[in-house]
Amino acid sequence: MQPTAEWLKTWEAKRELTLAPNDLEKYFTDKEIGGVEIDQINMGDVSLPSGKIFVNDPLGEYLAVDKDPYFLETPKGNFPVTASIVKYEDDGEVENLIGCVKISFSNEKPVRYEEAMKGIELIEELQEGEYFGFSIESGLATIVDAEVKDDFVKFIDEFENKGNDVNLYDDYFNALF
After folding, report:
1. Do the beta carbons of residue 27 and residue 116 sit within 8 Å?
2. Residue 152 in contact with residue 63, Cβ under 8 Å?
3. Rg (Cα) of the chain, in Å, rounded?
4. Cα–Cα distance measured from residue 28 to residue 84, given in angstroms and rounded to the nearest whole number
5. How far is CA 47 from CA 1, 36, 77, 111, in A?
6. 30 has pLDDT over 80
7. Alpha helical stretches, state H, 66-131
């Protein structure tokens, strides 16, 4: 579904509010931000044959029911994905958490980071400091091109229908991590 002309007009008027409030590029170049240790890892390439993408939790129902890719298309092709790892300490326990993820469409430094939109958000209600994001249940996220989305959803459904004791996270994703 393409955004309506009215939605696009409102988005243009409020687009500055969708810009990242700080320099997210630092999460992919620096080793410390605000006293917190940061590291970066290469996650491999993502294949974007159509340039129409979805970002969802692969373990939630969101990907299966989501009908709308982001309305601004990406370049088509295969692109490296980098994750920024934040060392998080809670009650003496240190965890490595993914702080953010970047698809590099070129070797140039990005000139801006802004929130991706589907054209269905209640953009007229957006205020400074707010964002829309996407829903997750498991703490995971996946980037899926529209051209392969149905096959990915089918894979998940078939995997989960193998039996009652099958768990997509434990029996598939965990080994990959």
Report:
1. no
2. yes
3. 18
4. 6
5. 22, 32, 6, 23
6. yes
7. none
Determine the Cα–Cα distance for residues 31 and 124; give it in Å rounded to an integer: 37
How deeply is 171 buried, as exposed, middle or buried, from its count of CB atoms within 10 A (0-12, 13-18, 19+)?
Answer: middle
Separation CA 55–CA 14 (nearest Å): 22
pLDDT surpassing 90 at residue 44: yes
- Amino acid making up residue 91: D
Contact 101, 82 (CB under 8 A): yes
**Model pLDDT for residues 125-170, shown as the tens digit of each residue:** 999 988 888 878 887 888 999 999 999 889 988 888 887 788 888 8
Nearest to 106 by CA among 85, 84, 75, 83: 75
Retrieve residue 151's tokens. Answer: 């096959």
For residue 60, give both structure tokens. Answer: 């939630």
Nearest to 79 by CA among 55, 54, 104: 104
Residue type, 49: P
C-alpha distances (whole Å) from 80 to each of 27, 102, 132 are 16, 8, 25
Q: Give the residue among 150, 7, 131 at the shortest CA–CA distance from 66.
A: 150
What CA–CA distance (Å, rounded) separates 34 from 85? 14
The span from the CA of 125 to the CA of 28, in Å, is 31
